[in-house]
Amino acid sequence: MSNIIEPNNLCPLLVVIVNYRTANLTIDCLRSLVSEVQSLPGMQAVVVDNDSGDGSAEKIGTAIKTEGWSDWASLLPSDYNGGFAFGNNAGIRPALKSSNPPPYFFLLNPDSIARPGALKVLVDFMDEHPQAGIAGSALEKPDGEPWHITFRFPTILSELDGGLNLGIVSKLLSNWVIDRSMPPDKPSETDWIPGASFIIRREVFDSIGLMDEGYFLYYEETDFCLQAKRAGWSCWYVPQSLVQHIGGQSTGYTYDSLEPAKRLPTYRFDSRRRYFVKNHGLLYALLADTVWILGFASWRLRRVIQRKPDTDPPQLLSDFIRNSVFFKGGASS
């Protein structure tokens, strides 16, 4: 069941939503785009269903038809779940190959709600900043709390900080800590932004190609933003564009810090290893693994001595070591 819309020369933006067993949320996400279509005439959206196998594709296709969205929304069922990058590429690739590819592509998670004007703000920003290759929205947690955070690229020093979990070290390494608090009232340049909601200029794909499908989930947007930066494109955080993001509805990992930590999936370690080996080489990846393992081992000992609660994911240290470069080398999976 598909109804792929061919982009035309009036299409200012193609929205790509990758669904995996979140049909109801995807339909709500599409519903939030109705007002955006009015502010961006010709805008189109494609939902890629990553082989959900639970009736999601049929349910979404029916909603597109019954809600009267068929003139701007379409469904692209996939018979294979290749992950986040794979799904987004499946939606982007046909548009890039069309006779009139849109100037911008907007990646939007299915568990997101675009607030009024969110997409128009990003399109206007990109029009006004021709060197900006990527720009992302401010995210809003389910309880309405704004999340003004972007990220720095991972380095050996950020891995040391992440493993140690020690306040004084985090202060000393503040310029390398991954999380980066952003001004809530003005656009700011940054390293990379969450893949839940960001816009990409078409020429970025001309420069670096599509997203790396070697990542199943996690690190694909980090890698993409790094490749774009190396090609001369800047990445921006635009808080005037607001998107509510529930988070973790396909993976089970949410913003809720009160929920017990879950064991991390193997693909998360695979993606981390792929990122470091691909972008910095095997030796650098070995050093990054070493400092994290030593730092985290010291944190686990310190936690016991200080009698602090154990909030780490189960078996994190053993899982990390088992999936490190030491045991898997440069393999991505």
Keywords:
Spore Coat Polysaccharide Biosynthesis Protein SpsA, Chain A; two-stranded antiparallel ribbon; 19% strand; 333 residues; 13 helices; ten-stranded mixed sheet
Description:
- Strands 1, 2, 3, 4, 5, 6, 7, 10, 11 and 12 form a ten-stranded mixed β-sheet that branches.
- Helix content is 41%, strand content 19%.
- Strand 6 (132-140) and strand 7 form a beta hairpin.
- It is globular and about 60 Å long.
- Helix 1 runs parallel beside helix 3 and helix 6 runs parallel beside helix 11 (282-306).
- The chain is an alpha/beta fold.
Set out the fold topology.
Layout: E1 14-19, H1 23-31, H2 34-39, E2 44-50, H3 56-66, E3 73-78, H4 84-97, E4 104-108, E5 112-114, H5 118-128, E6 132-140, E7 146-147, E8 149-151, H6 156-164, H7 167-172, E9 179-181, E10 188-190, E11 197-201, H8 202-208, H9 220-230, E12 234-245, H10 266-280, H11 282-306, H12 316-322, H13 325-328
Parallel strand pairs: 1-2, 1-4, 2-3, 6-12
Antiparallel strand pairs: 4-11, 5-12, 6-7, 6-11, 8-9, 10-12
Helix pairs in contact: 1-3, 6-11, 10-11
Number of extended strands: 12
Give the radius of gyration.
20 Å
Oligomer: single chain
* Count of alpha/pi helices: 13
Which class best fits the helix and strand makeup? alpha/beta
CATH topology assignment of the largest domain:
Spore Coat Polysaccharide Biosynthesis Protein SpsA, Chain A
